[in-house]
Design goal:
The complex is a heterodimer of chains A (420) and B (333). Chain A has 16 helices and 11 strands. In chain A, the strands form 3 sheets. In chain A, strands 2-3-8-7-6 form a 5-stranded antiparallel β-sheet. Chain A has a 4-stranded antiparallel β-sheet with strand order 1-9-4-5. A two-stranded antiparallel sheet of chain A has the order 10-11. In chain A, a hairpin with a 2-residue loop joins β2 and β3. In chain A, 42% of the residues are buried. Chain B has 14 helices and 2 strands. In chain B, α4 packs parallel to α8, α4 runs antiparallel to α11 and α5 runs antiparallel to α8. The chains are: A alpha+beta (420), B mainly alpha (333). Chains A and B meet through α1, α2, α5, α6 and α7 of A and α1, α2, α4, α5 and α6 of B.
Amino acid sequence: MDNIAGKKPALIWATHLSVALLVFLWLFPTVGLFVSSFRTADQISGSGWWKALFPQVQNTMIRTAAPETQQQIDGKYVIAGNLFAEEGDKPGTISVWGTSSRAIDAYKAGETADLGEDGLLTVEENGDYRLVGETQYSGSRGERVFLTARTPPSFTLENYRTVLFSGKATDKMGKAFINTFTVTIPATVIPILIAAFAAYALAWMDFRGRAFLIAVIVGLLVVPLQLALIPLLSFHGAVVEWFVDLMGTPDPANARRFLTVGSLGQMLGFAPGDTINSKGYLGVWAAHTGFGLPLAIYLLRNYMVGLPKDIIENARVDGATDFQIFTKIILPLSFPALASFAIFQFLWTWNDLLVALVFLIDSSGETTVMTRQIVELLGTRGGNWEILATAAFVSISVPLAVFFFMQKYLVRGLLAGSVK
Amino acid sequence: MHPAFQGLLTIAIGVGACIGYFYFSNIILDKVIFPARGPHAGRNINRANLVRPWLFLLPGLLALGLYLAYPVVETLRLSLTDRDLGGAYVGLENYRKMSNDPKFWEAMRNNAFWLLVVPAMSTGFGLLVAQLTDRIRWGSIAKSLIFMPMAISFVGAAVIWKLVYDARPLGTEQIGILNAIYLGLGGAEPINWLTLPFWNNFFLMVVLIWIQTGFAMVILSAALRGVPEETIEAAIVDGANPFQIFFRIKVPQIMGTIVVVWTTITITVLKIFDIVFAMTNGQWETQVLANYMYDQLFRARDWGVGSAAAMVIMLLVTPILVWNVYNARKEMK
């Protein structure tokens, strides 16, 4: 009964059409990347991806089989076969063909060309050909045939094989994929626990300064992490220097290199001359934990405050300690909020570029992550669309899977997380 | 040690340490420091309960303090010092240097355009989609598809849109849809959209609008559902047409949510880095503040000016920060 408008057919049609148009606009760019990742480099530069879904007219050059396959039939020398099969191409439909690059449309399908001393060549619509000559053919290569053929859509998985498994130094995507997981999982799990305890204290424990702390956390929600880059980079460096000093004696030339190693350091596997890098997984995990905490605490606190008061008070009356109430009652009940935050943090750490650039990736490039690899590909090989599209799609496929399976929690988290 | 294994170990150690810390610190508090027995049992319980909240809060507060609060102060200090002079105090010298840099003003100008365009367009499109999908049967599928770019990284989005904006020389097939359409409509020659000064900023903004519309839509859609039916029915009885119902009845009632969405996207825009970094890297007059700061910090290696640029971002965020805190406090009372 919402609106009478709902009963005007014209308006209903307009609504349906405009929603369809918007969805189409929003989807179109992503589909382009998806389709491109299944095309070869030639296909991508040969035609727009939107044409790839339909049969295409293409000009190609294909050689007939080599002279060694010739057979003698009725005193004549014959080479026969199918042009598409020669190159392993998908079958197509030939409209016109030729034997010289200057006249690629000299003959129609089914016609016979007189090649002079090379004999007569007939090419059928489906690619079958027959080359008949009076004299024996010699040489190692077949006759050139220029085709204008309509080929059905064809796609390949080759790009994915190259990107994920080739192991070439330039295509470090497989490694980056694992590295990205290595960054995200601890960076998602660790803040949850820390935040859950803090959120419980802020929601259900009474103490002075609670309102102030909540206000501080709301404030920290919007502090740009750009501010944290240099101070924390210096801080991580200081921690490394302190650690080296603790485990042995530092090299005077480089405070992060061991001159000698104490017995505890040796037990941990350090040797004199080892340098500890201030960039690395530990640093990036810590940074993501710190940056994710305000949202985590805020989300979880808002959720926990809404849990029924009776349960908690009954548990208190029955003699449960705060620790027991938290682990046995609050944590299980807060599962939806925990899931919401976990998804947020996962998406954010997976998609992050800046934090990884600053805290993780060193000059060796061993710890590179996918976002960084893609930026690299964009810069150095902007023309290699097949690799770029595939790499990008590999990188966005994991968040997309998470998104479609866990959308419910994501939406819930968004609704709870936006400051009202 | 393989990093993946190291990661698992870190999870185990991290989670174990967390649980261990909370468990044992509570035990020590209850059994050793303030035992709930003996002559002062009652007083001890009260004291333990005074301390306990801080046990629960300690790890979180330490991490927050170290990774967010301390850097704000430290960046402010760094912006007043010079690294080449061994960190000597130089007053506002870095800010003066920055204000003489035309690239900084270019970044400020571009950020201003981003701030004007992106939140408005994202919120507008979000509201439009939320309203249109409200009553149609396949609305939830439509919403889910428009929401999808939220899951895509800025870098992934940059690749997706670079393909859209791709330009090939005249005479060859265009593989970027925008140029294909442009030539199809009678354009003279393909345009390199990302190197077109001034307008290229807007082509970059499109990417962020594309991502943020889903966010705005989800929140506004929930808000629209919350508009009381009676107000709408009353309007219908009074003869309001659908547009009047939308603009005069629904929008005013969800104004608060619209402001929230607007400010949230504004903050994202102020911090925008990845899209510009991946697509143009600030060339062709597309510089923005966060990328300018990154350039100063890690390419020019000038920590003073870099920190000064970071402080400018902080300064721009501050009004929203204050507003959020003010609202949160009001709500708690």
